[in-house]
Design brief:
With 218 residues, this protein is α/β, with parallel strands linked by helices. The chain has helices at 14-24, 35-40, 44-50, 65-78, 91-104, 131-148, 160-164, 198-204, 213-217; strands spanning 6-9, 30-34, 55-61, 82-86, 109-113, 152-156, 172-176, 191-194. It has one domain (6-217): TIM Barrel (Alpha-Beta Barrel). Strands 1-2-3-4-5-6-7-8 form an eight-stranded parallel β-barrel, surrounded by five helices. Helix 6 (131-148) links the parallel strand 5 (109-113) and strand 6.
Length: 218
């Protein structure tokens, strides 16, 4: 199990985008584009591809099967090299999506999110749920997604230890990076996913602001 390194853009500021691309092009495997940036500046993916960089669609699709399959079919045409969906879509939807992608562009990677960092704050989540229960929930969703054929799992660092045991060799584990995880250690096989808050964290403390920040800056 070896996870790629992903950096996610949410800002449409062209100067900021260019600066981050120049700084990180040698250090990350994918530049992810959030839905808001994709809608506001749809040519961002072309900008990345023109520079020989790999674009990741961080849209976290979550809908009925036909909707997700049709949406993902359009991603391949735009040039994305990877994308994600929510594991709550269910096994049948994830399997149909993977089959659709494999038929169009077998090289495109499909990731499923087992649990969002904000998910335990949602109204339907038990307020007295323990971290272990959240971890077990994420592990079960990871098992379902992997059985459907995804290439990797995306999960918060708080429950990554529960999910990691479900991810076999040949598959990837992407973990949402967070400053407090630095002191907990970070297995090198876990791929860091630097999300929208990363720019601010990066500026605050280049030493430990992000997981593997020192490696990325070396």
């Amino acid at each position: 199990m070896q996870g790629p390194s992903v950096y996610c853009f949410h800002s449409a500021d062209q100067e900021r985008l260019s600066a981050r691309i120049d700084e990180l092009r040698e250090h990350v495997d994918f530049f992810a584009i959030g839905m808001d940036l994709h809608m506001e500046k749809p040519d961002t993916v072309a900008t990345l591809c023109d520079q020989g960089l790999s674009a990741y669609a961080h849209f976290l699709y979550y809908d009925i099967r036909e909707v997700v399959v049709n949406a993902v079919a359009g991603l391949a045409e735009h040039g994305y090299a990877a994308f994600d969906m929510h594991a709550l879509c269910g096994i049948e939807t994830m399997e149909a999506v993977c089959n659709e992608v494999r038929g169009q562009r077998p090289e495109v990677l499909a990731f499923a999110c087992a649990l969002l960092p904000s998910q335990i704050k949602l109204p339907w989540w038990p307020h007295d749920a323990t971290l272990e229960e959240a971890g077990q929930f994420a592990a079960e969703k990871a098992r379902q997604a992997l059985s459907a054929g995804v290439d990797g799992i995306l999960t918060p660092h708080e429950v990554a230890g529960y999910v990691a045991g479900e991810v076999p060799e040949g598959k990837s584990l992407l973990v949402y990076a967070a400053p407090r995880a630095v002191n907990d250690g970070w297995p090198t096989e876990w791929g860091p996913f630097y999300d929208w808050h990363a720019d601010e964290i990066w500026e605050q403390d280049e030493g430990i602001g992000l997981i593997q920040a020192r490696r990325l800056r070396s």
